[in-house]
Amino acid sequence: MLSALRTYSSGRGVRSAATWTVSSKIVESLDEAFELSFGAVEPAGTRHLLGLDVSGSMSGGEIAGVPGLSPSAATAALAVVAARTEPWTAIMGFADSFRDLGITARDRVDVATRKVSGLTFGSTDASLPMTWALENKIQVDTFVVMTDNETWSGRSHPVQALKKYRQATGIGAKLIVVGMTSTGFTIADPNDAGMLDVVGFDGATPAFMAKFAKGDL
Asked: What is the DSSP letter of 42?
């Protein structure tokens, strides 16, 4: 539904040169249908901390799985889904610092997309969600890191930061890394059953992530 909404609203095809006159009524109907589709997502029921990469590259290009969808728009969509379905969700932005993006369950995806676009805090440090939660004594069951180009430029590797958080809090926290574009390498440790890599984004992604967070995979 999100792909259809964004493609139709643009007035031009993604896979062809076709163009059309955009009808505001159709846009409203597609937007309403997308909002209603949230009800199909079964929540994990865990405490989620989402770290959204807000570096400049997130606003360009398109993700694997949904042609025409930028990484920033995809992260905004996943953030809104989590905010509306999970019992507790913190949505933060990261580059070389970490801050609240102000995204709430009341936001529509276009509003959330604006909140994550045009921001840059410097280089990308994907360990910040875990280090921030530990420093601020925030109890988190599931960390979700969303980025277009999985990089590490901080003081500690994200895997090390997660293990430190687990040891310090006694919480068996999980880590889901969503790589909006495939770069051939990963942040998560493939030998750790509590870490998951997701490459790209499609209609099955939210439910798949919820099942992993819940422990059903």
From this structure: P
